[in-house]
Amino acid sequence: MATATDGGGFDLDSLASKIDYRRFQECIHCGLCTASCPTYVETGDENDSPRGRIYLMRSVRDGRLGLSDPVREHLNLCLDCRACESACPSGVQYGKLIEPFKVALQDSAPAGQRPSLLQRLILTQLFPYARRVKLALQPARILQKYGVLDWFEKKGLTNLLPPTLRRLQAMLPPLAPVQPPPLPEVLPPVGPKRARVALFLGCVADAMYPETNAATARVLQHNGCEVVIPENQNCCGAIHYHSGYEEPAIQLARANMEMFNPDDFDAIIINAAGCGAMFKDYTHLLPHADHELAAKFVSKVKDISEFLMSLGPIKPTNELDRTVVYHDACHLCHGQQIRNQPRQLLGMIPGLKLAPLEESEICCGAAGTYNLTQPEMSERLGRRKMDRIEQTGASIVATGNVGCILQIARKVKERGLEIKVEHPIDLLDRAYGDVPEQASN
Amino acid sequence: MSAPATTPAAAEPDFVQLLNDGLLAKFIEAVGEENVLWRRDELVVYECDGYVIAKNSPDVVIFPTTRDQLVATIKICHEAGVPFVPRGAGTSLAGGALSVGGGVMITLTRMKSILEINLRDRYAVVEPGVVNVWLTRALAGSGFHYAPDPSSQGACTLGGNVATNSGGPHTLKYGVTVNHVKGVELVLPDGSTLVTGGVVEDAPGYDLTGLIVGHEGTFGIVSRVIVNLARDPEAGRTFLGVFDSVDAATETVSGIIAAGIVPAALEMLDNLMIRAVEQAFGFGFPTEAGAVLIIEIDGLEAGLERESHAVAEIVRQNGGEVQKSIAWRTRKEPEYVAIWKSRKSAFGAIGRLSPTFCTQDGVVPRTKLPHILRFITATGEKYGLRIANVFHAGDGNIHPILLFDERDPDQVKQVLLASHEILEECVNVGGSVTGEHGIGVEKMEFMPKLFTPEDLSAMETIRNTFNPEGNCSPSKMLPMGGGCIEKKSPGHHASA
C-alpha cells in the first residue's frame, strides 16, 4: 500500500467539506477523457490527465496521499480548461473538484511556490479594473507610439524587467496611440428595433482591445438592437474566483446582477468567453438564497455569437477574400458548449474561406493567468497551437476570447508570421462595412 | 502459481532495494530522468486501468520516447531479471495494463509518431502510442481510414489495440484489428527485435503477425505497427430501429443477417441503456422503447436504396419501426457523429445511473442472442441487480453492464456471482468469455473452461518461445502463471 506522504500543512477537513464525495464516484475510471486533456497529450503522463488528477485528488481526500510536491506539481499543471468535461460520458464535474483543490494548493503553498507579490497585485488589484489597466498601459502606449518599446526589445533591454512583467510586455498588442473615448451609454438600432440588449465590456479586454467592444456594439446595432452600455462596469469575478479568492468574486457577481437587471433587457451580451462562462456560473458561485435571481440573470446572459445566431443575423455584404481558421476558446466550447455559432457567423461573410484547424479544441496555453503561473507548459501549448495554425496556411485566426488572442498573437510575433489574430466579431463588423474610417485598418 | 490475496506490501522492499542499488540509475541513464517516475505519490495513478476491481501499483514507470530507448529499457529489465508490463492509455476493461506483482511498467504514450502514411499502397506505419483516432484524423479528406474503431478510440492507443486485437462497432463488416495489421516490429523480452509481415500482401512463412496480434503483452512489446488503410465508403445510411422488447430487436438482428445483408454496424441498446445515454447526450432516443438497434449499411450509393427498404421491412416484420434514417456521404455529418458518440460513450454514461459498474464481454452465436438476453434478465432478477445491455449485436458480442454500489460488500459479491453465471452460460451455448476486451487478469479463471489442458499447454509453449522467463506481462492471459515472480496479488478490491 502506498502510505500517505507528508504533504505539509493543509486543512483536509476544510477541503473535504467543500467537495461532495459523490463527485469523485462519478468518475468510473474509463479513461476516455485522457486524450482530450492538453497537458496529457503533451506529457503522456497519467498524473497529468483528468482521470489521473481525479485519482490524485481522491487519494488526498481519502488520506492516502498528502499535498506533497509531486501531487502539487500535477494539480497545479491543470489548465482548468474543462476539455475533460466535454469528453466525459459520465458527466463528471471536474471543475467542482479541481477548483477547491486549487484554493487549498494556494493556501498551503510552501513559501517558495507562492505567487509573488507582484503576481498577486497584478491578478487581484490590476486586471479586474479596466480603468487601472488602461492607466497602467499608458506608459506602454507612449513607448509603443515612438517605437521605443520595439527598440528596447531589439536591444534586449526588456530582459531587465521582472519575469512576470516581461511576459506581460511580450503579450502587449499594438495599442491605439490614444485611448479611444468610452462608448455612449445607449446606442440606437439600425432599422426597426428587434431587441434591447446590454453590453458587458470586460476589464483586460476593454483596456487592450477597446475596438472589439466598439465593433460588437456596431454589429448589434446593425442587427436591429438597441445597445445599452452601463458606465463604471465591474469585473465578472473570474480572475478572483479562479485564483482562489471566492469572497470578492461573490461581491462582484452581486454588483453585476444589480447593474445588468435581467428584467430590463432581452439579453446581456458578452464577447469574451471567459467572462461569459463566469456569468453563466453565478448560480454555482452564489449562496443558495441568491439562486432565483441568479438563475434569471443567467438565462439572459448570451455570448455575442450565440445571441446573433438565435436572433437571425443579417447577412453581411462586404467581401473578405481571406482564409480564416477558427480556434475554439476553452470557455466557449467547453465552458458554454458554443462551437457552431461563431463558425456560422464567419461562414456568412462573402469570400471568406473557413479552413479546418486540427485540434481546434485543445487549449492554446493562455488559460486565464496560467501563462503567468505555468510559463513552461503554456509555451509548449502555444507552440503546439501555432504548428497546427501554420499547417493551414490561413492568414487570419479568429477566436472569441481575449486571452487566446493575446497568446496566439504573441506566438505569431515570435515566429515573425504575417497572420492576424482577431475576434470573429471584428471580421463580421468589417463585412458589414459600418466601420468608421479611423478604426479600420 | 497464484499467490493468495494478501496485503501486497510484503515483498515490496525487495524491488525498492533493487532500484536503489543501481537499477533506477540505469533506467535514468537509458531514457533520461524526465522519462522515469519513481516517487511513490506518482505511481498511485498507475495502480489500475479501466478495470478497477484489481489494483496494484508498479514500482517504477518508464516512458521510452524512441524505439532505441524501449529496447534499452527492456534489456535492463532482462539483465536484472525483473518483471515488466506495457501500458498504453490504460483503457483496458480487463486489467490488461495492470502491473500484477509490481515491478516495471513501460508506458508507450511518448512513442506517438505516425511515421509514414502511404495512400497509394494503402498502409501507414505508426508507433504504439498513437491514439486510434489520431490516425483517422490524419487521414481525413484522403478517402481512406483505419477501420477498427473501438468505442474508446478517442483515447486508446494502436499498440493497445494490437495487444488485445480490438474490435468495435464496424468490425461486423470490416473485421477486427488482426485483419488490418500488415506487420509489426516486436521487441522481445530479452531486448532483441523481431520484424514480421510488411507492406506487401502475403508474406511467406508462418503468419507471425496474426499470432502476435492479441498477445496481450505476453510476447514482448510492439514498437511499430504497419496498418492497412481502408477505402471510405461512397455513402451510407444509418437507421434507428425502435422496438418494444429486447426479444424483437434480437430477432431482427438474426433476420437481417439471414437476409444476406452485411451491415457495417449493428448495435443494440436496451431500455436502461437508452435512458442513460439519452440523459448524457440528448440525441433523441425514445426513452420508453424496450430496445433500439443502430443499423448501418454502407457501400455504393446505387445499392443503398434497395438495401434500406429490405432493412426497414425486416424491422417491421419483427414489430419494430425505423424512426430515424441518416443518409450520409462522409462520417462527419453532425447527426451521424451524434448517434455514434451516444453509442460509443455508452459505458461512460452508466456513471449517471450507478456509482460503480462491471462490464462483461461475452460472445454467443448470433442465433442464441434472444436466449442469452433472457438469461441475463433472469440472472439480474435472481441476484436483485440492475443490468443494462449495449452491445455489438451483429457479432453476437454482448456487454451486460451490472450496476452496483462498491461500498456494499454484499452487492459486490452478487455482481461477481452473476457475472460468472452469465459468462458460463455464454460458454455453454457455444460462445466465449471475451469478444474484444481480452482476458487480462479478469477472465483468466475462465480459460480452463474454454480450452482443454492440451490447448492451454500449446499456448503456453508458444508464449514460452517468445517469453521464456515469463518476465514480460507475468500472470496475464494464461492461468499457469509466469514462473515465480509473483510478489503480490491484486486481490479483489472492489473500489473504483
Can you give a write-up of this model?
- The complex is a heterodimer of chains A (441) and B (496).
- By secondary structure, chain A is an alpha/beta fold.
- Chain A folds into four domains: 12-113, Alpha-helical ferredoxin (Fumarate Reductase Iron-sulfur Protein, Chain B, domain 2); 117-171, no CATH class; 186-310, 3-Layer(aba) Sandwich (Rossmann fold); 313-439, Rossmann fold (3-Layer(aba) Sandwich).
- Chain A has 25 helices and nine strands.
- In chain A, α13 (210-222) crosses α25.
- The longest helix of chain A has 18 residues, at 375-392.
- Helices cover 34% and strands 20% of the residues of chain B.
- Chain B is globular, with a radius of gyration of 23 Å.
- Chain B is an alpha+beta fold and 496 residues long.
- In chain B, the strands form five sheets. Chain B has a seven-stranded antiparallel β-sheet, sandwiched between helices.
- Chain B is built from 16 helices and 20 strands.
- Classes of the chains: A alpha/beta (441), B alpha+beta (496).
- At the A-B interface, α4 and α5 of A face α2, α4 and α12 of B.
Summarize the structure.
The complex is a heterodimer of chains A (441) and B (496). Chain A is α/β, with parallel strands linked by helices.
